[in-house]
Structure prediction request, 284 residues.
Amino acid sequence: MIQWYPGHMAKSRRILERDLKIVDLVVEVLDARIPYSSQNPDLAELLGSKKKIIVLNKMDLADRAISERWKNYFARDHPVVLVNSLTGEGIKELLAFIEAEGREINKALQEKGRNKRDIRIMVVGIPNVGKSALINVLAGVKYARTGNKPGVTRGRQWITVRKDIQLLDTPGILWPKFDDEDVGYRLALTGAIRDEVFDEEAAACKLIEYITGIDETILEKAYDIVLEAGQEIPYDILGKVGQRTGCLMSGGRIDMGWAASRLINDFRRGKLGSISLEVPGDDI
Ligand SMILES: Nc1nc2c(ncn2[C@@H]2O[C@H](COP(=O)(O)OP(=O)(O)OP(=O)(O)O)[C@@H](O)[C@H]2O)c(=O)[nH]1
Ligand SMILES: [Mg+2]
Prediction:
């Protein structure tokens, strides 16, 4: 199955525990398409009483109405902001939360007769969720390297976002909910797990299952194919996609591996529309 707990993740966790001690606030970046699966199950325990703001990033790729439901769901416990780190949508709202927090911290310091200081924030989240992109858009300058694959950020890096805010960019940290195969597939489909370590055809079939479960016409429209409602297995639908998009081997047979990677990439780039793979309250 999926090899998603490499040794460097264990090391990242130790570093995270150490860094948590020196920050005032944590920004947890979740993928708006999979808020449940992209949330680190152990973070709550590691955080203790430390305050957290949740960012549902890549809002442009998720279903807006479902994202609003997730926002309400998380808002019971934390400030939540929907963000598109490519356009900066939602950033003002996020900064307002950060600034309010900063004022509170400095007020407490001054009451104790101490000097004002910068607010220190740590940005955490699974690989490829957009932590570095978020920091860049917050800073208004391209500080951190981003990339459309997991594991782009290698080390930790402090970045002064404004004169009174310091952000810590961290490598993606992911550790497993071993018991849930769907979580693994969703992480794979959204790009949190390196493509080399999961079975793309199996993941593509899962994606077809998820998407047809939402609306059968999504794939029909995207690829100009016709599906026999509920009659076809995902593998056959993947074949239709491959046929239509010209993923063929010599001799004209469909290259299913190629079709799978094509479909997954189309999903990741939003070419199939804004699709959420998880809904709050689902049995997820
Ligand atoms: N569509 C869309 N793409 C985004 C958004 N935010 C980030 N991306 C893209 O997602 C990819 C990953 O972004 P990064 O900022 O490198 O992600 P990261 O969390 O820092 O990743 P690691 O450093 O590997 O852990 C890049 O291709 C970004 O351009 C967003 O809000 N919408
Ligand atoms: Mg990064």
Summary: The first strand starts at residue 25 and ends at 31. Residues 91-111 form the longest helix (21 residues). The chain has a mean pLDDT of 89. Residues 199-268 form a domain with the Conserved Hypothetical Protein Ylqf; Chain: A; domain 2 fold (CATH 1.10.1580.10).
